Amino acid sequence: MAPRISALIDFVSDCGGYVRTARVTERGFGRRTVDAAVAGGLLTRPRRGWIAVRSTPRMLYDAMTFGLVLTCRTAAQHYDIWLHDPEGEPHVAVPVARGGRVPVRAKVHWGAPLIPRDPDALIDPIENVLAYIAECEPFEQALATWDSAFNKGLVEMAAMSRLLLRPAARRVLAEASPFADAGLETYLRTRLRWLRVPLRIQTWIHGHRVDALIGARLVVQIDGKHHVGAQRSEDIKHDAELKLLGYHVIRVSYTQVMFDWPAVQDLIMRAVAQGLHLEA
Predict the structure, then answer these.
(1) For residues 234 and 224, what is the distance between their CA atoms, to the nearest angstrom?
(2) 115, 128 contact by CB (below 8 A)
(3) If we measure between CA atoms, which residue out of 54, 45, 55, 2 comes closest to residue 24?
(4) Rounded mean pLDDT of 231-251?
(5) Which of 54, 95, 102, 128 is most solvent-facing, going by the fewest CB within 10 Å?
(6) Is the distance from CB of 206 to CB of 248 less than 8 angstroms?
């Protein structure tokens, strides 16, 4: 491979695997170099003005091809924040100046975004993503996604509060918390609020973090979908240590919380009724 072509491939890869040709020109790469890389199968041209490495994920490739930006649920997966159900059609935004029909099957978000979009970007800024999530998802699911974004430090709650949010997003922000590590913990917070007993999410007890502490000594732990092996053994050990310290532990699974919540709630209600949440 010619040194100049190799340098071009490295530059495109450093840009995330795709880049507008205007940036390539600014970097000093000539059209002949770009054409040679495309002719040699090292780069592709999704549409005029863009080039990409051949390993570019299909969804990003389509965004370049049709002049779209990935947003809402689809962009949430890119940011690796919690999503109730990652399946479903892609969610895309259309630049205000573009207009017209979108030639792909997708949920399309029109209109001006909260944060202006960089013309080089294919993924919406996190603030725009969360605003669309608030409109698209049921409240509880949207809240869990917002909590996850705040927990990961992708955006500050104070910064979101200064934006011109629509009513749905304002409602989610009013209930959001940066302390929930996963969506199921958000579900606990919203679903148990009516009990009117103190509930702390992701608090430390005896050197370990617990998912929820109700009152003074009722611990609720939620096992993830892939909770096995060494992690499972360590959690069982910590449960035993908590019990020796006077805590009562209720451990439930992801499946129970997601698909059999009434049974989980019944366990917690009965534990509270017996005073297992009170100081010994």
Answers:
(1) 14
(2) yes
(3) 45
(4) 88
(5) 54
(6) no
CA 87 distance to own-chain centroid:
13
Strands 50-53 and 248-253: unpaired
Strand partners, 209: 204
123: which DSSP letter?
B
Amino acid identity of residue 13, one-letter, is S
Domain positions in the chain: 3-56, 66-175, 183-273
Mind giving me the DSSP string for 128-186? HHHHHHHHHS-HHHHHHHHHHHHHTTSS-HHHHHTS---HHHHHHHHH--S--SSHHHH
C-alpha 184/C-alpha 173 separation (Å) is 18
Q: What angle do CA 35, 54, 16 make, to 5 degrees?
A: 95
> What does the pLDDT look like over 39-59, one tens digit per residue?
999 999 998 999 999 999 998
Domain 183-273 has CATH 3.30.590.20: no
Kindly tell me if the per-residue pLDDT of 171 is higher than 70: yes
Asked if the model's pLDDT at residue 96 lies above 80, the reply is no
Mean pLDDT of 211-225: 90
In our burial notation (b when 16+ CB lie closer than 10 A, e otherwise), range 145-157 reads: bbbbbbbeebbee
